[in-house]
Design brief:
The complex is a heterodimer of chains A (about 180) and B (about 100). In chain A, about 75% of the residues lie in helices and about 0% in strands. In chain A, helix 1 runs antiparallel to helix 2. With about 180 residues, chain A is mainly alpha-helical. Chain A has a domain of about 90 residues: NADH-ubiquinone/plastoquinone oxidoreductase chain 6, subunit NuoJ (Four Helix Bundle (Hemerythrin (Met), subunit A)). Chain B has about 100 residues and is an all-alpha fold. In chain B, helix 1 runs antiparallel to helix 2. Chain B has one domain: Orthogonal Bundle (Helix Hairpins). Chain B contains 3 helices and no strands. Classes of the chains: A mainly alpha (about 180), B mainly alpha (about 100).
């Protein structure tokens, strides 16, 4: 049975979905890296609205803080550091043939994903229809994420700290100038 | 809303793939990868609404890996820029020998 959604729910959902797709299209077609980055930030904000609409409030906040706030600022910072803001310097779109091939691959992938999405879910993976809603009722929006994160996935959670440490060390080593290595 | 979310995430993912294929600016290609990761996050969240919150735990991990990847990748781009004075992938052919 298809659950019923009111217009107050579906309208923002479709609105921000369309904004996300339009910003993503603007993002891949802009010549200037700064403009492209700002369109990508717009996509990420719309996606965070969608996350909130899909009952993932914690992920929505993380999306704004981590993606739009931290990762995109790092990107913009690198664009500024390398002084790449001038679009004329990098007219970087490929020629006609690679673009056509890319469009063909894109259409093929969309068709493939749509076909896969239409497939039936095997019965042993089926859950009761209000399974997630009940979890949400019982533990709250953050508790539903935190409980599995610190129980079943505790080892993975601890290992991500090692990953981040390695990434920081790698970034420092790669970013260091060669002539300062001796000193 | 599951079907709509999956369709939206498929479209965003494919826009990211096409962006990687048609652009030559290394930083923009990097941002396209971030867009693909975001599209996958949307899939996880959409499924987590039906199958329970484990999907959201995976989104947290994906975000962590994306942050680490952005840090290392941008450091590599800065190193390449110091070496070649460009981030245009057409001019970066160190592996060609």
């Amino acid at each position: 049975m298809q659950p019923y959604y009111s217009l107050y729910y579906t309208f923002p959902f479709y609105l921000f979905g369309v904004i996300a797709i339009a910003s993503a299209l603007a993002f891949v077609t802009r010549k200037s890296p700064v403009t492209a980055a700002l369109w990508l930030v717009n996509t990420m904000f719309s996606l965070s609205v969608l996350f909130v609409l899909l009952d993932a409030q914690f992920i929505g906040v993380m999306q704004v803080l981590v993606y739009a706030g931290a990762i995109m600022v790092v990107f913009l910072f690198v664009i500024m550091l390398l002084n790449l803001g001038h679009p004329s310097e990098i007219a970087d779109q490929r020629g006609r043939w690679p673009t056509l091939v890319a469009a063909a691959i894109g259409i093929l992938m969309i068709a493939e994903i749509m076909v896969i999405a239409r497939g039936k879910v095997a019965s042993r993976f089926q859950v009761p229809p209000d399974f997630a809603a009940e979890q949400m009722q019982q533990y709250g929006a953050i508790g539903t994420v935190a409980r599995p994160l610190f129980n079943e996935y505790l080892l993975a959670f601890e290992l991500t700290s090692v990953l981040l440490l390695v990434a920081i060390a790698g970034a420092v080593v790669l970013g260091r100038r060669k002539d300062t290595r001796a000193g | 809303m599951l079907a709509e979310s999956l369709a939206l995430s498929a479209v965003l993912f494919v826009i990211g793939v096409v962006g990687v294929l048609i652009r030559r600016n290394a930083i923009i290609i990097f941002m396209c990868v971030e867009l693909m990761l975001n599209a996958v996050n949307l899939t996880f969240v959409a499924f987590s609404r039906v199958y329970g919150a484990t999907g959201q735990v995976f989104v947290v991990f994906v975000m962590t890996v994306a942050a680490a990847e952005a840090a290392v990748g941008l450091a590599i781009i800065i190193a390449i820029f110091r070496h070649r004075q460009t981030v245009n992938l057409q001019n970066i052919n160190l592996m060609k020998g």
